[in-house]
Amino acid sequence: MALIKALLAGLVGVSLCMANISGIVTDTGSTPISGAMVLLEKGGQTATTAADGSFTLVTSAGILPVKGKMLPNGLSAGITGNLMTVAIGERAAVEIATFDLNGKALFHVRQTMETGVHTIALPQRSAGVYLYRVKSGNGEVVLKGNSVGGGLSGSGVTAQGQSASRLAKKAMAPINDVIAVTKTDYLNYRCVQYSSDTTGLKIKMIASAGTVTDTDGNVYQTVRIVNQIWTVENLRVTRFNDGTAIPLDTSTATWDSLYNNGLTNPAFCYYNNMTNTDSIKKWGALYNWYAVNTGKLAPKGWHVPSDPEWEVMQSYLVINGYNYDGTTDTTNNKIAMALAAQTDWYPFTGAGYPGNDLTKNNRSSFSAFPSGYRYSNGSFEGQSYDCIWWSSTVNYASTAWYSHLYDGSRNFDRSDDYKSCGFSVRLVRDN
Questions:
Q1: What mean pLDDT, rounded, does the chain reach?
Q2: Contact in structure between 136 and 92 (CB atoms under 8 Å)
Protein backbone atom coordinates (compact mmCIF):
# COMPACT_ATOMS: atom_id res chain seq x y z
CA MET A 1 0.00 0.00 0.00
CA ALA A 2 2.92 2.34 0.70
CA LEU A 3 4.12 1.91 -2.89
CA ILE A 4 0.70 2.77 -4.27
CA LYS A 5 0.50 5.90 -2.10
CA ALA A 6 3.95 6.96 -3.24
CA LEU A 7 3.02 6.58 -6.87
CA LEU A 8 -0.14 8.59 -6.31
CA ALA A 9 1.65 11.41 -4.54
CA GLY A 10 1.70 13.47 -7.72
CA LEU A 11 -2.10 13.49 -7.96
CA VAL A 12 -3.85 16.14 -5.87
CA GLY A 13 -6.91 15.39 -3.80
CA VAL A 14 -7.29 11.67 -3.33
CA SER A 15 -5.55 8.59 -1.99
CA LEU A 16 -6.62 5.42 -3.77
CA CYS A 17 -7.30 2.42 -1.58
CA MET A 18 -8.19 -0.67 -3.52
CA ALA A 19 -11.57 -2.26 -2.99
CA ASN A 20 -12.28 -5.97 -3.04
CA ILE A 21 -11.65 -7.99 -6.19
CA SER A 22 -13.80 -11.02 -6.80
CA GLY A 23 -14.64 -13.49 -9.53
CA ILE A 24 -14.89 -17.11 -10.55
CA VAL A 25 -12.30 -19.56 -11.92
CA THR A 26 -13.36 -22.25 -14.38
CA ASP A 27 -11.82 -24.47 -17.02
CA THR A 28 -12.11 -23.50 -20.69
CA GLY A 29 -15.74 -24.56 -20.54
CA SER A 30 -17.79 -23.62 -17.50
CA THR A 31 -16.72 -26.23 -14.93
CA PRO A 32 -15.67 -24.49 -11.68
CA ILE A 33 -12.16 -25.08 -10.42
CA SER A 34 -11.97 -25.33 -6.65
CA GLY A 35 -8.83 -25.10 -4.53
CA ALA A 36 -7.00 -22.78 -6.91
CA MET A 37 -4.67 -20.23 -5.31
CA VAL A 38 -5.39 -16.63 -6.35
CA LEU A 39 -2.78 -13.94 -5.69
CA LEU A 40 -2.66 -10.19 -6.28
CA GLU A 41 1.08 -10.01 -6.86
CA LYS A 42 1.94 -6.46 -5.80
CA GLY A 43 -0.70 -6.15 -3.13
CA GLY A 44 0.13 -9.59 -1.71
CA GLN A 45 -3.52 -10.53 -1.04
CA THR A 46 -4.42 -14.20 -1.52
CA ALA A 47 -7.54 -16.32 -1.69
CA THR A 48 -8.48 -19.92 -2.47
CA THR A 49 -11.37 -20.69 -4.78
CA ALA A 50 -14.46 -22.31 -3.26
CA ALA A 51 -16.33 -25.34 -4.58
CA ASP A 52 -18.13 -23.13 -7.10
CA GLY A 53 -14.83 -21.60 -8.26
CA SER A 54 -15.53 -18.25 -6.60
CA PHE A 55 -12.96 -16.09 -4.79
CA THR A 56 -12.66 -12.69 -3.16
CA LEU A 57 -9.42 -10.80 -2.63
CA VAL A 58 -10.05 -8.58 0.38
CA THR A 59 -7.98 -5.45 -0.08
CA SER A 60 -9.58 -2.46 1.60
CA ALA A 61 -12.68 -0.33 1.48
CA GLY A 62 -13.30 2.41 -1.01
CA ILE A 63 -11.61 5.68 -1.80
CA LEU A 64 -10.50 8.04 0.95
CA PRO A 65 -10.27 11.78 0.34
CA VAL A 66 -7.14 13.46 1.64
CA LYS A 67 -6.16 17.07 1.99
CA GLY A 68 -4.52 18.61 -1.05
CA LYS A 69 -2.76 21.93 -1.36
CA MET A 70 -4.98 24.97 -1.73
CA LEU A 71 -5.27 25.99 -5.37
CA PRO A 72 -6.35 29.29 -7.00
CA ASN A 73 -9.95 30.24 -6.12
CA GLY A 74 -9.56 28.05 -3.02
CA LEU A 75 -10.45 25.04 -5.18
CA SER A 76 -10.32 21.56 -3.68
CA ALA A 77 -12.17 18.32 -4.38
CA GLY A 78 -12.50 14.75 -3.20
CA ILE A 79 -14.53 11.60 -3.76
CA THR A 80 -16.19 9.43 -1.14
CA GLY A 81 -18.32 6.56 -2.37
CA ASN A 82 -20.66 7.91 -5.03
CA LEU A 83 -20.27 11.57 -4.08
CA MET A 84 -17.88 14.23 -5.30
CA THR A 85 -17.29 17.18 -3.00
CA VAL A 86 -16.09 20.43 -4.55
CA ALA A 87 -15.06 23.39 -2.37
CA ILE A 88 -14.39 26.81 -3.84
CA GLY A 89 -13.27 30.02 -2.09
CA GLU A 90 -14.99 32.47 -4.40
CA ARG A 91 -17.78 32.49 -6.96
CA ALA A 92 -16.43 31.06 -10.24
CA ALA A 93 -17.11 28.76 -13.17
CA VAL A 94 -16.17 25.13 -12.46
CA GLU A 95 -15.65 22.43 -15.06
CA ILE A 96 -15.90 18.71 -14.22
CA ALA A 97 -14.77 16.19 -16.84
CA THR A 98 -14.51 12.40 -16.68
CA PHE A 99 -12.20 10.11 -18.64
CA ASP A 100 -11.62 6.38 -18.88
CA LEU A 101 -8.13 4.92 -18.74
CA ASN A 102 -7.74 5.11 -22.52
CA GLY A 103 -8.12 8.88 -22.30
CA LYS A 104 -11.63 8.90 -23.79
CA ALA A 105 -13.75 11.78 -22.51
CA LEU A 106 -17.01 10.40 -21.13
CA PHE A 107 -18.78 13.40 -19.60
CA HIS A 108 -18.27 17.11 -19.21
CA VAL A 109 -20.19 19.76 -17.28
CA ARG A 110 -19.54 23.44 -16.65
CA GLN A 111 -21.42 25.52 -14.14
CA THR A 112 -20.95 28.58 -11.95
CA MET A 113 -20.61 27.73 -8.27
CA GLU A 114 -21.05 30.03 -5.31
CA THR A 115 -18.49 30.23 -2.53
CA GLY A 116 -18.67 27.17 -0.29
CA VAL A 117 -18.86 23.38 -0.47
CA HIS A 118 -20.92 21.59 -3.10
CA THR A 119 -21.83 17.90 -3.14
CA ILE A 120 -22.40 16.21 -6.51
CA ALA A 121 -23.90 12.74 -6.96
CA LEU A 122 -21.96 10.69 -9.51
CA PRO A 123 -23.98 8.15 -11.53
CA GLN A 124 -22.76 4.57 -11.27
CA ARG A 125 -20.71 3.20 -14.16
CA SER A 126 -19.39 -0.24 -14.99
CA ALA A 127 -16.63 -1.58 -12.74
CA GLY A 128 -13.30 0.09 -13.30
CA VAL A 129 -11.15 3.11 -12.57
CA TYR A 130 -12.08 6.55 -13.90
CA LEU A 131 -10.33 9.91 -13.85
CA TYR A 132 -12.02 13.15 -12.82
CA ARG A 133 -10.67 16.58 -13.66
CA VAL A 134 -12.09 19.47 -11.67
CA LYS A 135 -10.98 22.85 -13.04
CA SER A 136 -11.65 26.48 -12.20
CA GLY A 137 -9.53 29.24 -13.70
CA ASN A 138 -5.89 28.25 -13.27
CA GLY A 139 -6.69 25.69 -10.58
CA GLU A 140 -7.01 22.01 -11.45
CA VAL A 141 -7.54 18.88 -9.34
CA VAL A 142 -7.17 15.38 -10.76
CA LEU A 143 -8.96 12.57 -8.92
CA LYS A 144 -9.29 8.83 -9.41
CA GLY A 145 -12.43 6.92 -8.62
CA ASN A 146 -13.36 3.26 -8.56
CA SER A 147 -16.58 2.18 -10.24
CA VAL A 148 -18.25 5.53 -9.73
CA GLY A 149 -19.95 7.92 -12.08
CA GLY A 150 -18.57 9.91 -14.94
CA GLY A 151 -19.97 13.31 -13.94
CA LEU A 152 -23.38 14.97 -13.94
CA SER A 153 -25.93 13.78 -16.45
CA GLY A 154 -26.06 15.60 -19.80
CA SER A 155 -23.49 17.52 -21.83
CA GLY A 156 -21.73 14.51 -23.32
CA VAL A 157 -18.31 15.14 -24.82
CA THR A 158 -17.45 13.72 -28.24
CA ALA A 159 -13.97 15.14 -28.72
CA GLN A 160 -10.87 13.73 -27.08
CA GLY A 161 -8.07 16.15 -26.34
CA GLN A 162 -4.41 15.65 -25.61
CA SER A 163 -4.93 16.45 -21.94
CA ALA A 164 -7.23 13.44 -21.61
CA SER A 165 -4.53 11.13 -22.94
CA ARG A 166 -2.01 12.55 -20.52
CA LEU A 167 -4.38 12.03 -17.62
CA ALA A 168 -4.90 8.42 -18.65
CA LYS A 169 -1.17 7.77 -18.92
CA LYS A 170 -0.66 9.19 -15.42
CA ALA A 171 -3.09 6.69 -14.02
CA MET A 172 -1.78 3.51 -15.63
CA ALA A 173 1.24 2.78 -13.46
CA PRO A 174 -0.24 3.28 -9.96
CA ILE A 175 -3.12 0.84 -10.46
CA ASN A 176 -1.23 -1.78 -12.44
CA ASP A 177 -1.14 -5.14 -10.68
CA VAL A 178 -1.21 -8.77 -11.74
CA ILE A 179 -3.66 -11.47 -10.71
CA ALA A 180 -1.98 -14.87 -10.66
CA VAL A 181 -3.86 -18.17 -10.32
CA THR A 182 -2.22 -21.55 -9.84
CA LYS A 183 -3.66 -25.04 -9.66
CA THR A 184 -2.10 -28.46 -10.18
CA ASP A 185 -2.67 -29.83 -13.71
CA TYR A 186 -3.48 -26.37 -15.08
CA LEU A 187 -1.24 -23.79 -16.72
CA ASN A 188 -0.32 -20.91 -14.43
CA TYR A 189 -2.59 -17.92 -15.10
CA ARG A 190 -1.22 -14.38 -14.92
CA CYS A 191 -3.12 -11.35 -16.17
CA VAL A 192 -2.58 -7.64 -15.71
CA GLN A 193 -5.33 -6.05 -13.63
CA TYR A 194 -5.77 -2.37 -14.44
CA SER A 195 -8.85 -1.76 -12.32
CA SER A 196 -8.48 -1.72 -8.55
CA ASP A 197 -12.20 -2.23 -7.97
CA THR A 198 -13.34 -5.24 -9.94
CA THR A 199 -16.09 -7.72 -9.30
CA GLY A 200 -17.27 -10.60 -11.42
CA LEU A 201 -13.92 -11.49 -13.01
CA LYS A 202 -14.19 -14.60 -15.17
CA ILE A 203 -10.89 -16.47 -15.21
CA LYS A 204 -10.53 -19.52 -17.44
CA MET A 205 -7.61 -21.90 -16.91
CA ILE A 206 -6.21 -24.21 -19.58
CA ALA A 207 -5.24 -27.76 -18.75
CA SER A 208 -1.50 -28.38 -18.76
CA ALA A 209 -0.01 -30.92 -21.15
CA GLY A 210 2.44 -31.94 -18.44
CA THR A 211 5.91 -30.72 -17.51
CA VAL A 212 9.46 -31.20 -18.71
CA THR A 213 12.65 -30.91 -16.64
CA ASP A 214 15.95 -29.65 -18.06
CA THR A 215 19.48 -30.70 -17.17
CA ASP A 216 19.67 -28.15 -14.33
CA GLY A 217 16.42 -29.41 -12.79
CA ASN A 218 14.29 -26.47 -13.95
CA VAL A 219 10.68 -27.54 -14.53
CA TYR A 220 8.65 -26.07 -17.39
CA GLN A 221 4.91 -26.26 -18.00
CA THR A 222 3.68 -27.27 -21.45
CA VAL A 223 0.63 -26.77 -23.65
CA ARG A 224 -0.81 -28.72 -26.57
CA ILE A 225 -1.30 -26.73 -29.77
CA VAL A 226 -2.64 -28.89 -32.62
CA ASN A 227 -0.55 -32.11 -32.43
CA GLN A 228 2.46 -30.40 -30.86
CA ILE A 229 3.45 -30.07 -27.19
CA TRP A 230 5.24 -26.75 -26.51
CA THR A 231 6.93 -25.36 -23.42
CA VAL A 232 5.20 -22.16 -22.25
CA GLU A 233 8.35 -20.68 -20.71
CA ASN A 234 11.68 -19.64 -22.23
CA LEU A 235 14.54 -22.05 -21.70
CA ARG A 236 17.04 -21.12 -18.98
CA VAL A 237 19.27 -24.19 -18.82
CA THR A 238 23.01 -23.61 -18.27
CA ARG A 239 24.27 -27.11 -19.16
CA PHE A 240 23.91 -29.24 -22.24
CA ASN A 241 22.07 -32.53 -21.86
CA ASP A 242 25.42 -34.35 -21.59
CA GLY A 243 26.19 -32.35 -18.44
CA THR A 244 28.80 -30.02 -19.92
CA ALA A 245 28.49 -26.32 -19.19
CA ILE A 246 27.26 -23.91 -21.84
CA PRO A 247 29.75 -21.01 -21.89
CA LEU A 248 28.27 -17.90 -20.24
CA ASP A 249 29.38 -14.75 -22.07
CA THR A 250 28.79 -11.45 -20.26
CA SER A 251 31.32 -9.47 -22.31
CA THR A 252 30.17 -7.25 -25.16
CA ALA A 253 33.60 -7.52 -26.78
CA THR A 254 33.79 -11.32 -26.80
CA TRP A 255 30.18 -11.70 -27.93
CA ASP A 256 30.86 -9.27 -30.79
CA SER A 257 34.01 -11.17 -31.74
CA LEU A 258 31.97 -14.28 -32.60
CA TYR A 259 30.53 -12.47 -35.59
CA ASN A 260 33.58 -10.40 -36.51
CA ASN A 261 35.97 -13.36 -36.40
CA GLY A 262 33.64 -15.96 -37.88
CA LEU A 263 33.68 -18.09 -34.72
CA THR A 264 31.11 -20.81 -34.06
CA ASN A 265 31.42 -21.12 -30.30
CA PRO A 266 28.19 -21.93 -28.38
CA ALA A 267 27.33 -19.28 -25.80
CA PHE A 268 24.47 -18.00 -23.67
CA CYS A 269 23.72 -14.99 -21.48
CA TYR A 270 20.91 -13.27 -19.61
CA TYR A 271 19.38 -9.99 -20.73
CA ASN A 272 21.57 -7.12 -19.49
CA ASN A 273 23.51 -9.80 -17.59
CA MET A 274 20.80 -9.97 -14.95
CA THR A 275 21.50 -12.10 -11.89
CA ASN A 276 18.18 -12.07 -10.02
CA THR A 277 16.80 -15.63 -9.86
CA ASP A 278 13.15 -14.60 -10.21
CA SER A 279 13.93 -12.41 -13.22
CA ILE A 280 15.88 -15.21 -14.91
CA LYS A 281 12.97 -17.61 -14.36
CA LYS A 282 10.56 -15.10 -15.84
CA TRP A 283 12.54 -14.00 -18.91
CA GLY A 284 14.71 -17.06 -19.55
CA ALA A 285 18.18 -17.08 -21.10
CA LEU A 286 19.43 -15.95 -24.51
CA TYR A 287 21.40 -18.43 -26.64
CA ASN A 288 23.35 -18.01 -29.84
CA TRP A 289 22.43 -20.37 -32.66
CA TYR A 290 25.64 -22.34 -32.25
CA ALA A 291 24.34 -23.52 -28.87
CA VAL A 292 21.09 -24.53 -30.59
CA ASN A 293 22.99 -26.36 -33.33
CA THR A 294 24.72 -28.67 -30.86
CA GLY A 295 21.41 -30.51 -30.54
CA LYS A 296 22.09 -30.73 -26.80
CA LEU A 297 20.02 -27.90 -25.32
CA ALA A 298 16.88 -29.98 -24.81
CA PRO A 299 16.42 -32.95 -22.49
CA LYS A 300 15.76 -36.37 -23.99
CA GLY A 301 12.44 -36.52 -25.84
CA TRP A 302 12.44 -32.80 -26.66
CA HIS A 303 14.09 -30.51 -29.21
CA VAL A 304 14.38 -26.93 -30.42
CA PRO A 305 11.64 -26.56 -33.06
CA SER A 306 12.49 -26.33 -36.74
CA ASP A 307 11.14 -23.50 -38.85
CA PRO A 308 8.48 -25.79 -40.41
CA GLU A 309 7.31 -26.73 -36.90
CA TRP A 310 6.82 -23.06 -36.07
CA GLU A 311 4.82 -22.77 -39.30
CA VAL A 312 2.56 -25.67 -38.29
CA MET A 313 1.60 -23.88 -35.08
CA GLN A 314 1.08 -20.58 -36.89
CA SER A 315 -1.20 -22.11 -39.54
CA TYR A 316 -3.25 -24.01 -36.98
CA LEU A 317 -3.94 -20.90 -34.92
CA VAL A 318 -4.95 -18.82 -37.95
CA ILE A 319 -7.24 -21.50 -39.40
CA ASN A 320 -8.91 -22.00 -36.02
CA GLY A 321 -9.82 -18.35 -35.51
CA TYR A 322 -6.99 -17.09 -33.32
CA ASN A 323 -6.45 -13.97 -35.44
CA TYR A 324 -7.50 -11.03 -33.28
CA ASP A 325 -10.28 -10.19 -35.75
CA GLY A 326 -11.45 -13.79 -36.23
CA THR A 327 -10.33 -14.06 -39.86
CA THR A 328 -8.79 -17.31 -41.12
CA ASP A 329 -6.61 -16.18 -44.02
CA THR A 330 -3.30 -18.04 -43.65
CA THR A 331 -1.55 -15.55 -45.97
CA ASN A 332 -2.08 -12.78 -43.41
CA ASN A 333 -1.73 -14.06 -39.86
CA LYS A 334 -2.80 -11.74 -37.03
CA ILE A 335 -2.13 -14.05 -34.09
CA ALA A 336 0.29 -11.88 -32.09
CA MET A 337 -2.23 -11.25 -29.29
CA ALA A 338 -3.13 -14.94 -29.12
CA LEU A 339 0.52 -15.82 -28.42
CA ALA A 340 1.55 -12.90 -26.18
CA ALA A 341 1.37 -13.14 -22.39
CA GLN A 342 -1.11 -10.99 -20.46
CA THR A 343 1.60 -9.11 -18.59
CA ASP A 344 4.77 -7.09 -19.20
CA TRP A 345 4.15 -5.85 -22.76
CA TYR A 346 4.76 -2.12 -23.14
CA PRO A 347 1.55 -0.19 -23.95
CA PHE A 348 1.06 0.28 -27.70
CA THR A 349 -2.15 1.62 -29.17
CA GLY A 350 -3.52 -0.30 -32.14
CA ALA A 351 -6.09 -3.04 -32.65
CA GLY A 352 -4.49 -6.47 -32.57
CA TYR A 353 -1.19 -5.35 -31.04
CA PRO A 354 0.02 -7.32 -27.98
CA GLY A 355 0.59 -4.03 -26.12
CA ASN A 356 -2.88 -2.65 -26.83
CA ASP A 357 -5.02 -4.54 -24.30
CA LEU A 358 -3.12 -7.16 -22.32
CA THR A 359 -6.30 -8.65 -20.88
CA LYS A 360 -7.19 -9.95 -24.37
CA ASN A 361 -3.83 -11.64 -24.96
CA ASN A 362 -2.77 -15.29 -24.73
CA ARG A 363 -5.80 -17.24 -26.00
CA SER A 364 -3.37 -19.97 -27.07
CA SER A 365 -1.62 -20.07 -23.64
CA PHE A 366 1.76 -19.88 -25.39
CA SER A 367 2.54 -17.09 -22.88
CA ALA A 368 5.13 -15.17 -24.88
CA PHE A 369 7.03 -12.65 -22.76
CA PRO A 370 8.79 -9.67 -24.40
CA SER A 371 12.16 -11.00 -23.29
CA GLY A 372 14.32 -8.96 -25.65
CA TYR A 373 17.45 -10.19 -27.41
CA ARG A 374 21.20 -9.73 -27.75
CA TYR A 375 22.36 -8.61 -31.16
CA SER A 376 25.50 -9.94 -32.83
CA ASN A 377 27.48 -6.87 -31.69
CA GLY A 378 26.78 -7.75 -28.04
CA SER A 379 24.16 -5.06 -27.34
CA PHE A 380 20.94 -5.90 -25.47
CA GLU A 381 17.72 -4.63 -26.98
CA GLY A 382 13.95 -5.05 -26.99
CA GLN A 383 12.90 -6.18 -23.52
CA SER A 384 9.26 -5.21 -22.80
CA TYR A 385 8.36 -4.93 -26.49
CA ASP A 386 10.14 -7.68 -28.45
CA CYS A 387 10.74 -11.42 -28.29
CA ILE A 388 12.57 -13.68 -30.73
CA TRP A 389 12.96 -17.48 -30.68
CA TRP A 390 15.48 -19.51 -32.61
CA SER A 391 14.51 -22.34 -34.88
CA SER A 392 16.94 -25.15 -35.64
CA THR A 393 16.76 -24.40 -39.37
CA VAL A 394 19.66 -22.85 -41.30
CA ASN A 395 18.98 -20.20 -43.93
CA TYR A 396 22.38 -19.07 -45.22
CA ALA A 397 25.88 -19.91 -44.06
CA SER A 398 25.84 -17.10 -41.49
CA THR A 399 22.11 -16.95 -40.67
CA ALA A 400 19.31 -19.13 -39.29
CA TRP A 401 15.53 -18.78 -39.12
CA TYR A 402 13.73 -17.32 -36.14
CA SER A 403 10.15 -16.49 -35.08
CA HIS A 404 9.23 -13.09 -33.69
CA LEU A 405 6.60 -11.06 -31.81
CA TYR A 406 6.63 -7.29 -31.45
CA ASP A 407 4.21 -5.20 -29.40
CA GLY A 408 3.51 -2.89 -32.36
CA SER A 409 2.60 -5.65 -34.80
CA ARG A 410 -0.43 -7.91 -35.24
CA ASN A 411 1.63 -10.59 -36.92
CA PHE A 412 3.67 -13.56 -35.81
CA ASP A 413 6.71 -13.03 -38.02
CA ARG A 414 9.47 -15.28 -39.33
CA SER A 415 12.81 -14.15 -40.64
CA ASP A 416 16.52 -14.90 -40.34
CA ASP A 417 19.47 -13.28 -38.58
CA TYR A 418 23.10 -13.87 -37.75
CA LYS A 419 23.80 -17.08 -35.87
CA SER A 420 25.84 -15.10 -33.33
CA CYS A 421 22.72 -13.30 -32.07
CA GLY A 422 21.33 -14.20 -28.65
CA PHE A 423 17.66 -15.20 -28.87
CA SER A 424 15.22 -17.02 -26.62
CA VAL A 425 14.48 -20.73 -27.04
CA ARG A 426 11.27 -22.75 -26.68
CA LEU A 427 11.11 -26.56 -26.84
CA VAL A 428 8.71 -28.90 -28.56
CA ARG A 429 8.25 -32.57 -27.70
CA ASP A 430 9.46 -35.24 -30.07
CA ASN A 431 6.68 -37.00 -31.96
A1: 82
A2: yes
- 63-172 has the same fold as 20-59+176-204: yes
**Quick one: pLDDT at residue 125?**
61
Collect all residues with Cβ–Cβ distance below 8 Å to 279 and sequence separation of at least 6: 270
pLDDT digits (tens, 9 = 90+) for 36-52: 999 988 778 899 999 99
Rg of the chain taking only CA atoms, in angstroms:
25
Residue 413 has pLDDT above 80, yes or no: yes
**112-123 pLDDT tens trace:** 888 888 877 766
Q: Which fold has domain 63-172?
A: Immunoglobulin-like (2.60.40)
pTM for this prediction? 0.71
Q: How far is CA 396 from CA 280, 387, 399, in A?
A: 31, 22, 5
> CATH number of 20-59+176-204: 3.30.200.20, 1.25.40.10, 3.20.20.140, 2.60.40.1120?
2.60.40.1120
What is the 3 state secondary structure string of the chain?
CHHHHHHHHHCCCEEECCCCEEEEEECCCCCECCCCEEEECCCCCEEECCCCCEEEECCCCCEEECCCCCCHHHCEEEEECCEEEEEECCCEEEEEEEECCCCCEEEEEEEEECCEEEEEECCCCCCCEEEEEEEECCEEEEEEEECCCCCCCCCCCCCCCHHHHHHHHHHHCCCCEEEEEECCCECCEEEEECCCCCCCEEEECCECCCEEECCCCCEEEEEEECCEEEECCCCCCCECCCCCECCECCCHHHHHHHHHCCCCCCCEECHHHCCCHHHHHHHCCEECHHHHHCCCCCCCCEECCCHHHHHHHHHHHHHCCCCCCCCCCCCCCCCHHHHECECCCCCCCCCCCCCCCHHHCCCCCCCECCEEEECCCCCEEEECCEEEEEEEEECCCCEEEEEEEECCCCCCEEEEEECCCEEECCCEECC
pLDDT at residue 420 above 80? yes
Could you tell me the residue ranges of all domains in the chain?
20-59+176-204, 63-172, 211-429
* 32 neighbors 25 (Cβ within 8 angstroms): yes
Judge whether residue 410 has pLDDT over 50.
yes
